[in-house]
Amino acid sequence: MALTVGILAACVTSSHTTAGKGLHSTSNPNDLVSVRIPASTSMIYDAFDATLNGTSGDRKFSIAIQNNVGMVTQGNRTTQVVVSKQISWSPRTLYAIIGTDTEAILMGWVYCQGGLLTTLWLEDTTGTTGFTSSTVTGTCSVSNTGVNVPFKTANTLVSVRLPPSYPTIDGGTKLSLQPNVVGSVTLNNQPYSLIPFAIVDCSNCGSSVNGGWVEVHSVISSKKANNVCLGIFYLPVIHTPSISLEYVNCFSYNVSRQTFSATYTIPSNLKSLQLLSNVPPIGATPPLPFQGLRAKLS
């Protein structure tokens, strides 16, 4: 089966269907979604101009960004990235990055303080790592000059492994996720397709009034809006009539965190990829480095 998603064109088509619904059952853990990344050059505007350079002590991670575009290296893997967002979080400033390579779509957060680059957080659509943190030694040089930068992608297919099991969501036309169809979500009054790539079972995490939560890490794309994002849907284990979308990171333009009225079912056979206390929680005080960040994302 090959479901193709045009990243910068942001379209979803299917070359194989199950019961005419478009996306196959995820009972087979080897099921893959092929995400089409076209050869494209897109102009991306930021109200700042960032140069970010750093390397981890073990040399496994490095980042080299100039004028808001550059590369992240993880071992032998290099990913083209663009800086999509700047967040002031005193005394730090955070920079959101998003990019692609032949293996995955990647998102991350770069932490800067006093002109120094201190931490790099990464997650990608291989669905195997959750957020990975690396202490990075480097520098941050940023001006308040707005710049348009070209972000180039090559023509390739990225294989995304769908979770073996994931929640079903019924939020009407605003938010929907079912086992055998491409999901949908409305953001800024625009329709987006929703494809989960990782589930984090944090049902025993946190101390919020709603207890723990389950996270649906997703690719969110829109042909009409010409935009592709990665984001996390939070579902409280003690059911509430709402679901929140947090930590949204986009190619073309950013989308604020949102809350949806919806009912949902969390399957009992969820296969947790990781139990990560440092994944941003809903309704609880996150440990560092995410403490206080959730309120800053909108």
Outline of the structure:
This protein has 298 residues and is mainly beta. The protein has strands at residues 3-6, 11-14, 32-37, 40-46, 49-56, 61-66, 69-74, 77-89, 92-100, 105-113, 116-124, 132-143, 147-153, 156-161, 168-170, 175-177, 183-187, 190-202, 213-222, 227-236, 242-250, 258-261, 263-265.
Distance between the termini: 36 Å
Q: Structural class, please? A: mainly beta
List the quaternary state of the chains: single chain
- The gyration radius over C-alpha positions equals 18 Å
- Largest sheet, if any? 9 strands, antiparallel
| Number of DSSP-assigned strands | 23
Walk me through the structure:
This protein has no helices and 23 strands. It is an all-beta fold and 298 residues long. It has two domains: 42-150, Lipocalin (Beta Barrel), CATH 2.40.128; 166-296, no CATH class. Strand 16 and strand 17 (183-187) form a beta hairpin. The chain starts with a strand and ends in a 33-residue tail after the last strand. Residues 1-27 and 272-298 have low confidence and may be disordered.
Describe the secondary-structure layout.
Blueprint: E1 3-6, E2 11-14, E3 32-37, E4 40-46, E5 49-56, E6 61-66, E7 69-74, E8 77-89, E9 92-100, E10 105-113, E11 116-124, E12 132-143, E13 147-153, E14 156-161, E15 168-170, E16 175-177, E17 183-187, E18 190-202, E19 213-222, E20 227-236, E21 242-250, E22 258-261, E23 263-265
Antiparallel strand pairs: 1-2, 3-14, 4-13, 5-6, 5-12, 6-7, 7-8, 8-9, 9-10, 10-11, 11-12, 15-16, 15-23, 16-17, 17-18, 18-19, 19-20, 20-21, 21-22
